[in-house]
Amino acid sequence: MKNNNYKALSVSALLCGSLLSGQAFAIAETVHPRDYIPAPKGVNLSVTYLQSVSGDDFNVDGDTVSNDADLQVNAVIQRFIHYTELFGMPADPQIIIPVVDQDVGIQGEQSSGIGDIFIGSTLWPIANNDNKEWLGLSSFVYLPTGEYESDKAVNVGANRWTLVFQGGYTKGLSDGLYMELIGEVEIYGDNNDLAAGDSLGRDNMYRMSAIVSQDVTQGGYVWGRYSKQKGGEVDIDGVDQANSDVDTDTLTLGYSQWIGKRFQLQGEYSQDLSVKNGIETDGITLRVAIPF
Q: Is residue 139 a contact partner of residue 119, using CB atoms and an 8 Å limit?
């Protein structure tokens, strides 16, 4: 039997850290309103996210086992997008670089630094501006570039490769009203550098989102997003860990405003409605998009 260093951290700390490993990056990977409407070919876009997320209720199998998780995640995420054409379709190759500070007070664990950089692109087989209808298919890969220490339960880097496949359908209705439906699957590689030489794996994660946005001013719109995540059960050396799967519902409300054609400002507030395993969070995000 292995002399497992996780005895000192406890299995709950390990699972908590695993569930949080993608917390800070979700805001850049989650689709925001009208993201699946491509800009014209040749446009470059710099998008900066400022995120602050916190939470206290730690749930296991749907029951709150602690009201003092004391989670705090602060992140600055920089995204660069170039709009072009590939195979005769609009495309947007891009790179996303997160810088994260993450603290879980109940575990006495903190980690900060550059997170896992990810790259990818969307292709639009349907991009009908006249009919206000768009369908985009996206793929991303997370690179294991983030700060990681094998003897810590909480890290800003996951120390594994991750593939993300996403599809988004956008339809403009009437009077500035838009509806969007997005589906996503995340496929995880293994982290083979846990304490005592153990390996951590994770099942696929699935996310579905629905977004409704409505123009209220010239260049400005209010919006709401409902998201559902399921899956992601964790295993250690092939042994499934109880109460490690994700089943989370989240509601987000926001406002976006273009300032002429110079830049767009966006603010949003997110609140978890239900969390099966993990920490219930709420938070705010500010986003600045600058075309160049």
A: no
